[in-house]
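Q: Hi! First time doing this. I have a protein sequence and I read that you can turn it into a structure. Is that right? Here it is:
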Amino acid sequence: MSRLASAEPAADRRRSPQPPVRGPSGRGPLGRLAGWADRRTHALLVLPGVALLLAVVAYPIGFNLWNSFTNRNLSFPVTDWVGLANYRWVLEDPAFYSAIGKTLVWTFASVAGQLLLGFAGAVALQNVRRAQTPLRLGLIVPWAFPSIVLAFSWRFMLDPIVGVLNDALLAVGVIDEPLAWFGNESTAMPAIVVMNIWFGFPFMMVALLAGLQTIPAEHYESARVDGASFWQELRHIVLPALRALIGALVVLRTIWVFNNFDFVYLATAGGPAGATETLAVYAFRVGWTNFEIGRMAAVSVAMLAVLVVIVAVYLRVLRPDRDEEA
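A: Yes, that's right. Below is the predicted 3D structure, encoded as C-alpha cells:
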C-alpha cells in the first residue's frame, strides 16, 4: 500500500499540465519589440533599399516635377509658380518637335543596329568550337570604353584632315575629297548612330549568346533529323526561345539610348545646325545654356511621357505571351 500511495502522487504530477512557456512578448516591452522585429525581418531588410531608392529616384523626380511648374531661372533669384506655362512653351516650340524626330531616329536606328549585329555575333560565336572565350573578350572591348574616350576616338578617326577613314576611302576611290562626317548635316546623324552601334552591340551579343546556350541541343538534333535548314532552325527554334530575352534587351537599350546625352554631346554637341539635337541635348541647351531650369524640367517630363509611350508599345508587341493569347 505504501508503494501505491507514493506512486499515485507522482503519476498525478506527470499528468498535471505544465505552465506554458512564455515567449518574448512575456518579457516586457523589450521582449515584445524583439518579437515584432522577428516577425517583420523581411520588411526591415528591404527598408534601407527602399529608403535609398526614394532618396536617389523619387526625390529628384518630384523636385524636377515641381520645377516644371515654376519659372526657375539661374539668372534670377526669385522663383514663382507659373502653372502650365512651361509646358505650353515647350509644345509651341518647333525645336521640340524637331528634337523628338531626331531622337526617334537616333534611338530606333541604334537599337536595331545593335540588336542585328549582336544577334549575328552571338550566332557566330555559338558555332565557334575553339578560342570562344578570347573572341568573346575581344568583341566586348567597345562596351568597356568610357564615353569620352569613345567619342573622341571616333572624332579623330572621322576627322576630315587626319582621320583614318577618309584616308582609307580616298585610297580605294570611294570619295574624291575628305568629308567632315560630324560637320555635315547629311552625315552627322548616321555617323553617331554607327558609333553607338559599335559601342552597344557587345552587350546584346553577350546576352543573346547566354540565351542561345540555354537552348537544349536535342532541339537542333530533332530539327536536323527532319531536314530543317539553318534558317528554319533560326525561325522555329532560336527566335521563339529568345523572344522574351530579346524583348527585355530591346526595352532596356531603348531606355538607355533614348536618354543618352554624352555620346551625342561629346561627338557633335547637337550640331551641325541642330542636325543631331536629340531631346536630351535640347533639354541641356534650354537649361544650361539659357539657364531656364523650369522649362528644362518641363522638357524632361515630356521626354518621360514619350519614353513611356514607346516602352508601352514595345511591351505590347514583344510580350512573350502574345501568341498564347491569340
